[in-house]
Amino acid sequence: MIVDRELWRKEKEESYKRLWEDLEIGYLDEDLLEILLEFFKRPESFTKSSCSGRITLLDGPLPWERRESTIIFKKHSPITVDEIESLLDQPVLYRLWLVATGPIIHVITLTGREARRILRIAGKAGFKHSGIMSISKKGFIVELRTGIRLAALLKTPRGLVVSREGLKEAVRAANEALMKGKERLNRLLAELRADKSHK
Amino acid sequence: MIVDRELWRKEKEESYKRLWEDLEIGYLDEDLLEILLEFFKRPESFTKSSCSGRITLLDGPLPWERRESTIIFKKHSPITVDEIESLLDQPVLYRLWLVATGPIIHVITLTGREARRILRIAGKAGFKHSGIMSISKKGFIVELRTGIRLAALLKTPRGLVVSREGLKEAVRAANEALMKGKERLNRLLAELRADKSHK
């Protein structure tokens, strides 16, 4: 096996420390904590850079292009029309998108066997777009993600392109998307707790 | 290795036959043919169920939920406002979404080494959400996908939620998304042709 066990163990330790630091400074999504700890409990897994899902207001040419985009607003819980309405008055450079994304979790495993176990658990919890993204001496990087993703176009440099009803509906849909993501996280937690494959 | 070489070889042969059948009945996206053939030329790879990217008009609660959704319109090339405008008059059950998706290619490799080579090539071509989805005796299933995805809300049961300008802008954005996907396919073809790792 190409994974360097010592290197992997060191990274796990560091990631564990960082987890608690991130929690302390409010950088970590609290919704995720229990799940991340379940991964850390597994002898051959740990996690890195994870997100429980979020809603953003984004000014950019297309909603997946980060380089040219500016995040105007970001929240990990449901939003209201009032919260974003004042932001709609400001001028737009490219296009203003209301984007909702599902959870993403990166799990680093020591072995291929553990990577496959994680994929199986993730599949059962509805993380259908999960996969092993890379394999190196640092471990197997497994990305867990759902298909949940929504980008509603709200405004262009020429003005608003949605009606008042359209704005309300876009906010409603984004909140639904976010909640669907949280549901999948709950299922993931349950599947992780039910799993005995590493014991 | 757990992959059954004979089973894998048989599946490759069948997939190759199906590729030409699909092409004949117009089921295969012609944009993809050259790329798929590049994969088949590799001794340890073949492809299954692939899509060059498409634009759909979808009636459903949320744009990634296939079960409750109905596809009203589907096209693998750019669309015009005229093409979909008449479809907007019809009643909507849930929500009407204009969805653009980037290309998705499933590659089945014989070895983990080849799977990693494919991931490296895909990464260079901008298929940044690629990963090994499963490993079984049939092979390593590698999904190549980009982050390109756009769903614009057009209508609810209560009526249109976009202005005329909004509709035009949504069509424009969907076409841009589609073309960005085709660009990535061109890059993938170039990277595959430049790659000598299997030779």
Determine the mean pLDDT of chain A: 92
Alpha plus pi helix count of chain A? 5
CATH superfamily of chain A: tRNA wybutosine-synthesizing-like
In whole angstroms, how far apart are the ends of chain A? 21 Å
CATH C-level of chain A: Alpha Beta
List the helices and strands and how they pair.
Two copies of one chain form a homodimer.
Chain A: H1 5-24, H2 30-41, E1 45-51, E2 54-59, E3 70-75, H3 81-85, E4 96-101, E5 104-109, H4 112-124, E6 131-136, E7 139-145, E8 149-156, E9 159-160, H5 164-194
Antiparallel strand pairs in A: 1-5, 2-3, 2-4, 4-8, 5-7, 6-7, 8-9
Describe the structure.
Two copies of one chain form a homodimer. With 199 residues, chain A is an alpha+beta fold. The longest helix of chain A is centred in the last third of the chain and has 31 residues, at 164-194. Chain A contains five helices and nine strands. Helix content of chain A is 41%, strand content 27%. Chain A has one domain (5-193): tRNA wybutosine-synthesizing-like (SSo0622-like fold), CATH 3.30.1960.10. Chain A is elongated. In chain A, helix 2 packs parallel to helix 5. In chain A, the strands form two sheets. A five-stranded antiparallel β-sheet of chain A has the order 3-2-4-8-9, covered by helices on one side. A four-stranded antiparallel β-sheet of chain A has the order 1-5-7-6. The interface between A and B is large, with 40 and 41 residues.
